[in-house]
Write a structure and sequence with these properties.
The chain is an alpha/beta fold and about 210 residues long. It is built from eight helices and five strands. It has two domains: about 130 residues, 3-Layer(aba) Sandwich (Rossmann fold), CATH 3.40.50.1000; about 70 residues, Transcription Termination Factor Rho, Rna-binding Domain, Chain A, Domain 1 (Orthogonal Bundle). Helix 4 packs parallel to helix 6 and helix 7 packs across helix 8. The longest helix is centred in the first third of the chain and has 22 residues. It is globular and about 50 Å long. The structure holds ligand L4RZE5RM and magnesium ion. Keywords: Amino-acid biosynthesis, Hydrolase, Magnesium, Metal-binding, Methionine biosynthesis.
Length: about 210
């Protein structure tokens, strides 16, 4: 099938711009280690977030959600707040594959608008790209979307994103490592590519393969 060239690109983070290992082995354990202390030391910030967590012991529920890699909005909000300190003091540096900054530079130089759609909160997205191992990449990003727009496996979320970006669905190209997300984007009429950083069956294996 032939496609018209996209006017904008929408990128997933974990498994697409950045490694799954960084998220699983550095970000999530950092949040796990600091969660109880953050909640205790920041009661006013934490209270409205904890109010969205079911059960009598929200901290235990949140820790279980981290272990299960649940993409729950209150957890993602709290993780973003906790990671801020790790990035500020240099303990965390956002992983990006070498082709990620190269692609961001290439696409923006060609006039393409680049946005992010991740289960990580918008604050967390700005941190990983603002404090990346390749420096501050936020000047190359013009839009950020998270689970407050809707789940990534729901086609309505992609319709909301193209509306927010004032694009026709076919003008936006989404790249993700999750087939269910790519399918949902296709269902909404977007162009979409499945990426596999480990070289398995997929449309692409690097952002260097994405035009122009
Ligand atoms: C913003 S970096 C942390 C990513 C994160 O928390 C996550 O759950 C990854 O989800 P993605 O949608 O980027 O695969
Ligand atoms: Mg992903």
């Amino acid at each position: 099938m032939t496609h018209t060239p996209p006017k904008a690109i929408l990128l997933d983070i974990e498994g697409t711009t950045s490694s799954i290992r960084f998220v699983a082995d550095e970000l999530f354990p950092y949040a796990r280690r600091h969660l109880a202390e953050f909640v205790a030391n920041n009661p006013e910030v934490a209270a409205p977030i904890l109010a969205q967590v079911p059960g009598d012991d929200p901290v235990a529920t949140l820790l279980a959600w981290i272990d299960e890699d649940r993409k729950e909005t209150p957890l993602k909000t709290l993780q973003g707040l906790i990671w801020a300190r790790g990035y500020a003091d240099g303990e965390l540096k956002g992983h990006v594959y070498p082709d990620t900054p190269e692609a961001l530079r290439r696409w923006t130089a060609a006039g393409l608008m680049v946005s992010i759609y991740s289960s990580g909160s918008i604050a967390a997205q700005k941190l990983i790209f603002g404090h990346s191992i390749a420096g501050d990449l936020t000047p190359f990003l013009s839009g950020y979307f998270d689970t407050t727009t809707g789940p990534k496996r729901d086609s309505d979320s992609y319709t909301r994103i193209v509306d927010a970006l004032d694009l026709a669905p076919s003008e936006l190209l989404f790249v993700s490592d999750m087939a269910a997300e790519v399918d949902a984007a296709h269902e909404a009429g977007l162009q979409a590519l499945l990426i596999d950083r480990e070289g398995g069956p997929a449309d692409i294996h690097s952002l260097a393969e994405v035009l122009p």
